[in-house]
């Protein structure tokens, strides 16, 4: 695995943010290689191993070419490679707004407080729900976001239980997103409306703008 100032990078691209409360905004994406989960629905399996090593200076120089202040670090699972921490800190020190998309199974306590953490809590149909690192829930601040990707009614009920147990609706924005192609958008909408809770429904915007399997968008 890459060293202290080096990261294995799957792709860096500039696109419309398709997820989170930042959806719709131009954003630079840095997708890190490797993941230690295997979600049944994963749309980014190409990031499990593929990538090229890049130094932090080179990554930051590339990000700067897009002249966009919003940067999202994703993957794969971005918290696996230790050099992600100095990357985030250097981006923040350079004035970038930094979003981190993480799977909820990795300890987020060492992430710089200035980073907006978008934490995905894995539901049963992902096959990875038992890997969740529950102490993370207590760390969520109001500029973080928690997200549940829902594949069926069992996932939905599970997500509601987690919301209650950790009082998440009072901690930060809560997003529910359908597993693309597996759960009907309208079905999820009806379930959310019936709860009468301020749960934000989320579609992956980029999959409607471009072809759903297109890379680099
Ligand atoms: C590819 S993951 C990378 C970051 C991290 N590994 C994680 O899972 O949060 C980015 C986001 O895409 C979501 N995602 C992956 N495949 C999806 C699919 N088929 N439908 C909806 N969301 C999906 C994940 O649940 C996660 O929220
Ligand atoms: N446009 C676009 N927005 C995204 N938001 C989160 C993404 C991800 O893969 O983590 C993603 C992505 O892959 N593309
Ligand atoms: S944690 Fe994220 S990248 Fe890893 S398998 Fe699950 S959805 Fe894919
Ligand atoms: Mg994606």
Automatic annotation (TrEMBL):
Lineage, uppermost ranks: Bacteria, Pseudomonadati, Calditrichota, Calditrichia, Calditrichales
Family: Belongs to the radical SAM superfamily. 7-carboxy-7-deazaguanine synthase family.
Role of this protein: Catalyzes the complex heterocyclic radical-mediated conversion of 6-carboxy-5,6,7,8-tetrahydropterin (CPH4) to 7-carboxy-7-deazaguanine (CDG), a step common to the biosynthetic pathways of all 7-deazapurine-containing compounds.
Oligomer status and interactors: Homodimer.
Pfam (any one): Radical_SAM
Transmembrane regions: none
Binding, [4Fe-4S] cluster: 35, 39, 42
Pathway terms, separated by semicolons: Purine metabolism; 7-cyano-7-deazaguanine biosynthesis
Catalytic reactions on record: 6-carboxy-5,6,7,8-tetrahydropterin + H(+) = 7-carboxy-7-carbaguanine + NH4(+)
Domain of life (superkingdom): Bacteria
EC number(s) stated in the UniProt entry for this protein: 4.3.99.3
Name of the molecule in the record: 7-carboxy-7-deazaguanine synthase
GO biological process per UniProt: tRNA queuosine(34) biosynthetic process
Cofactor note as given: Binds 1 S-adenosyl-L-methionine per subunit. Binds 1 [4Fe-4S] cluster. The cluster is coordinated with 3 cysteines and an exchangeable S-adenosyl-L-methionine.
Keyword entries, A-Z: 4Fe-4S, Iron, Iron-sulfur, Lyase, Magnesium, Metal-binding, Queuosine biosynthesis, S-adenosyl-L-methionine
PROSITE patterns for the chain: RADICAL_SAM (PS51918)
Organism: Caldithrix abyssi DSM 13497
InterPro entries (alphabetical): 7-CO-7-deazaguanine_synth-like, Aldolase_TIM, rSAM, rSAM_sf
Domain Radical SAM core: 22-212
């Amino acid at each position: 695995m890459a060293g202290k100032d080096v990261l294995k990078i799957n792709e860096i691209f500039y696109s419309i943010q398709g997820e989170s409360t930042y959806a719709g905004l131009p954003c630079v994406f840095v997708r890190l290689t490797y993941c230690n989960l295997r979600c049944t629905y994963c749309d980014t399996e190409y990031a499990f191993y593929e990538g090229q090593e890049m130094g932090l200076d080179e990554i930051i120089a590339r990000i700067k070419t897009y002249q966009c202040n919003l940067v999202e670090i994703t993957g794969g699972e971005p918290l696996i490679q230790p050099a992600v921490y100095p990357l985030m800190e250097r981006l923040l020190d350079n004035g970038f707004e930094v979003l981190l998309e993480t799977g909820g199974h990795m300890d987020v306590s060492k992430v710089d407080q200035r980073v907006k953490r978008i934490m995905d809590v894995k539901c049963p149909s992902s096959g990875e729900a038992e890997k969740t690192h529950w102490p993370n829930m207590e760390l969520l601040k109001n500029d973080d976001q928690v997200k549940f990707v829902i594949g069926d009614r069992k996932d939905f009920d599970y997500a509601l239980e987690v919301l209650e147990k950790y009082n998440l609706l009072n901690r930060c924005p809560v997003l529910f997103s359908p597993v693309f192609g597996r759960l009907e958008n309208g079905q999820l909408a009806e379930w959310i409306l019936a709860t009468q809770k301020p749960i934000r429904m989320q579609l992956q915007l980029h999959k409607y703008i471009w072809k759903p399997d297109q890379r680099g968008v």
